[in-house]
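Archive maintenance. Older records in this collection stored only the sequence; we are now back-filling the structure field for every entry so that each record is complete. The fields below show one back-filled record exactly as it appears after the update. Entries are processed alphabetically, and 4-hydroxy-tetrahydrodipicolinate reductase is next in the queue.

ARCHIVE ENTRY
Title: 4-hydroxy-tetrahydrodipicolinate reductase
Organism field: Rhizobium mayense
Length field: 274
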Amino acid sequence: MSDDAMKLVVVGAAGRMGQALIRLIHATEGTTLHAAVARPGSAFIGKDAGEIAGLGPIGVPVTDDPLSAFLHAEGVIDFTTPATSVTFAGLAAQARIVHIIGTTGCSAEDETRFKAAARHARIVKSGNMGLGINLLSVLVEQAARALQSADWDIEVLEMHHKHKVDAPSGTALLLGQAAAKGRGIDFGENSVRVRDGHTGPRPAGTIGFATLRGGGVIGDHSVIFAGESERLTLSHSAGDRSLFARGALQAALWARDKKPGLYSMLDVLGLSTR
Ligand code: NAD
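Back-filled structure field:
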């Protein structure tokens, strides 16, 4: 490990993404696992983070005390729950460090809190940390701009594993927002997230969502542009959770020398059009 390796805290250390992050940080030159935080009351407190992630002992005991974890840390990577991410954004702001937020299902109120924390913290937040989906979102925006006519109906279809707790997925929403941006319409006012019973015909110009859950699917997304006589589908399949961990680590290293602010993966990947 080099002396200038970025010291990173993993929150949600025992979770699916937390374990993938611990394995990746351990294997990545230029990053070091500074601390691992689990939920208060978790059975993993005091256990070695490497053992939990299937690496064998690495000398980092899991803690439930964020303050000790943050001492001398340079960044925190957080794939947990909205309430936890809001709390950690406040702590990252106090410590003036990098906060990478992968958590999905956050409310508008949560987003306001992240914005406030980003006055002091360098926050990168994205519903999907992977290169493929972020590139896809750029393509979706372009397609929606080119297919301006409300004759082209836009539908976002997603499938995830049976343990996922929020719907539509953060990635599906990210893709829907990209489509709305391309169309130049307000996403909140034009998205249809649920259909049930006698819904009547499809309102023109809306962006619809359909959610499938089952098995161990890591994440499949399609954006369908349906015209009267042709249909265009742009899609992506995630094969392995480590792709999100790789993106999160790339984001942490990118944000290390940035000014405080709220950034997205498009900024990290140089795909931003704003
Ligand atoms: P998970 O349930 O396996 O892990 C979440 C972990 O957070 C759990 O271990 C839980 O105990 C822990 N946690 C909850 N409260 C905590 C607290 N106060 N302090 C510390 N730890 C706490 O879930 P997962 O599959 O790893 O996903 C986590 C989140 O990341 C979800 O919102 C998911 O949608 C999102 N996700 C985002 C991306 C992306 O690229 N942005 C990719 C995958 C998953």
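Update note: Residues 11-12, 14-18, 37-39, 42, 79-81, 84, 102-105, 126-129, 170, 244 surround nicotinamide-adenine-dinucleotide (CB under 6 Å). The chain is about 35% helix and 20% strand.
Entry marked complete.
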